[in-house]
Queue: 2 jobs
Job 1
Amino acid sequence: MTTQSGTTEVQGEPGRAEAREGFDEITILWISEGMSCDGDTVSLTAAGQPSIEDVVLGLIPGLPKVNLVNKVLSPSLGGEHFLAPYRAAARGELEPFILVIEGSIPNQNIIEGEGYWTSFGNHPDTGEPQTLNEWIDDLAPKAWAVIAAGTCATFGGIHAMAGNPTGCMGLADYLGWDFKARSGLPVVNVPGCPIQPENFMETLVWTLQHAAGAAPPPPLDHMLRPQWLFGKTVHEGCDRAAYYEQADFARDYNSPKCQVKVGCWGPVVNCNVPKRGWMAGIGGCPNVGGICIGCTMPSFPDAFMPFMDEPPGGTLSSMVIKPYGAVVRRLRGLTNDLVNHEPKWRHNKSKLTSGYDPHWRA
């Protein structure tokens, strides 16, 4: 059976569609009313490969026409005028759409209806604040795809740390890790505190290409992160990594050497920022002298505190590598000295000593 959008529904699963023929137009409904600082939306505006403007203006070949609804980026008048597409989607009158959630999801159950943690507009029937949880309950089952933007939305982040009163969690914790959107995709997690702009845009563009029928589903790891972006560690892309191998560690934050001894978690954190940079290929925490504190990881921040202290295992690993690193450093020093001289046959004398043999003259 074919829907009005030109996609083919999965037989036996009414309403769930695969992007086989693809969509010509799609709406992105972005809600940043999770427990959040809106930093992910702000970061998104720095993307350049591609920029969000490129996507919205239709400058990326092969993508469907994109209608973006975001409170920071929208020219809307605000109020109910701004909420209109969200209301239509909740009624099932706006298809297809991608739901993007920014910010942690609080647990409304623990306050038993007495107040709310965070809201987005007022409920049309009661006039009371409409909670984020109500919006997610209404929109997520109808969304073609659901994307969590930033570590707060993906895994709970700062607001979900031990001792918090909100019971905050990530979107997949709230919807269930087996949740599937209408496309068959699970929640797509793009962590980062905030998101690295190009990381999010690459993920969004791949999802849009999938919606257009031009690409397969984006490959995700066991934590539903884009595998090609989070499949390597900070250490594997860090330009300080060779210092670790040579057991040459920084003792303060002014040093260009490996920062494990001053609190860097790079060897065990999945993130590509040192390799990719932050904006326009520039920056990235260790690249500019900052330690990695694990902000893309599911256990952030609890497992990485106290910050600035040497990570568990850092003492043992640096102790084990010390004799190896000393030998390697010495051997490389000898080789460096050897190759730091010109060959002896390069001289301005009357006799040729390069070993040249004009055998062809014989």
Job 2
Amino acid sequence: MIIDFKKYSSVRIGGKFEVEVLDDIDVFDGFIVGGANNLLVSNDKKKLGILSKKFDFIDILEKNEKYMLINIGCATKSSKIYKFAKENNLKGFEFLRKIPGLLGGLIKMNAGLKDENISKYLLSVRSAKKEKQKDELCFSYRYCNEKDVMFSAKFRLEYGFDKERDEILKNMRDNQPSGASFGSIFKNPPNDYAGRLIEAVGLKGFCKNDACFSDKHANFLINKKNATFEDAIFLIELAEKRVFENFGIKLQREVVII
């Protein structure tokens, strides 16, 4: 299939590429685009793949009065997972209410908010080669070391959907900038915030053509309308350069550039 990343990606940047649809659990040596929510696509030729709707599911494996074991396909949207957890009174996925993406990308980035993250209640992930237990993987802040394509994942969730925490996390996300973006550009350095550092070097609200650092939160790059890959990468590299020159801190990218 052909995907136009200017329409498909969350930041609305990129050209049209042939993307292989994966219908079966098999080895794939290209890049899985997922929901393209934290993806910046260059114009270079590349091998891309996407999971088919076959991997959009939530199956209950075990259910008792204490917890539920579920198996979720990696093409399942975060909003669908959040809704399932809320409807079944399961706690742990409240943070997914306002975090976009498909499960595969959420695991790859160990997506989260505050002290919550997707790996917290994870049991295992299924790739073409094997089912890997959580302790076979390395998770850290916005990172998972799994290199193989993930097709599904199992979770153990206890009961007790936290409505108060749900509202708190929703309000935190509501305070973030709107518009076409990939969310946070950089990971927060230890004991600091990327947005504070970018603002401190004078880049909050700074633009290169239609690509701008948000004037609401400097760690968000907004595409006003027709920003290009070159515009976005210029700003990303500029922020890295200025922050390092002024603070000696090397910003680590959260956005994936391919």
